[in-house]
Specification:
Blueprint lengths: L1 H27 L2 E7 L14 H11 L4 E5 L7 H15 L3 E5 L2 H5 L4 H17 L3 E5 L9 H18 L3 E2 L25 H16 L3
Parallel strand pairs: 1-2, 1-3, 3-4, 4-5
Length: about 210
């Protein structure tokens, strides 16, 4: 009887230790962050490792925040293209956090704001249905596109953010857009020296999201 009791106690202790180990492993597993963006996030014209997404990865490591970043950004990407690619990315990577930085190419091509807004809404909804927390990164259009279009374009991010409760960085190029010296010759893509400022714009909202449990 006593020997049997000791064996049962040992089994219970071992089972408890295994459960604790599994729980600790799950808790310590890195969060996966999916960045779905265009050339502004894909390091267009930059040396690899100098764009804001790479700088974000470095900052997370420096702050000992365990997160793995998947940069699925593609130069020239539109909201339509992002929406087409997102389901497969969600299935493949199962991210806890999704950062959507899209819309600039829709605006530069003068595409209807309503269509871009609908695409953003669909992307946020898809990610949220997969239990991902979503952050939107907004853009502005140059004034030569006309006040009505630029205001409507800028406002679409706020509309989607408010409706779907997705945190928003209103303008990723705040502090950069008016500084010609911070841009490549095409005047569309920031130099590497501008990307720390871009990260500084994104970090406060992102850090609050990544630290949620």
């Amino acid at each position: 009887m006593q020997a049997s009791l000791i064996v049962n106690v040992k089994k219970s202790v071992l089972a408890g230790l295994l459960m604790l180990a599994a729980s600790a492993s799950a808790y310590s597993a890195p969060k996966t962050v999916l960045v779905l963006g265009d050339s502004l996030s894909a390091e267009y014209g930059l040396a690899r490792g100098t764009g804001w997404v790479a700088l974000l990865d470095q900052k997370l490591k420096a702050q000992k925040i365990d997160a793995a970043i998947i940069n699925a950004s593609v130069s020239g990407e539109t909201t339509s293209g992002g929406l087409t690619r997102l389901p497969a990315l969600l299935t493949q990577h199962k991210p806890e956090v999704v950062v959507i930085e899209l819309g600039a190419n829709d605006g530069l091509r003068g595409l209807p704001v309503a269509a871009a807004e609908a695409n953003l809404r669909s992307m946020v909804t898809l990610a949220q249905k997969q239990n991902a927390r979503v952050m939107l990164v907004g853009m502005r259009m140059p004034p030569n596109y006309g006040r009505a279009y630029t205001d409507k374009f800028f406002g679409m991010y706020k509309e989607v953010s408010t409706e779907l409760k997705a945190p928003l960085v209103p303008f990723m190029l705040e502090g950069v857009a008016q500084e010609a010296a911070m841009f490549q010759p095409d005047r569309l893509h920031p130099l590497a020296t501008a990307h720390p400022t871009i990260l500084a714009n994104i970090w406060p909202t992102f850090s609050a999201l990544i630290k949620q449990r």
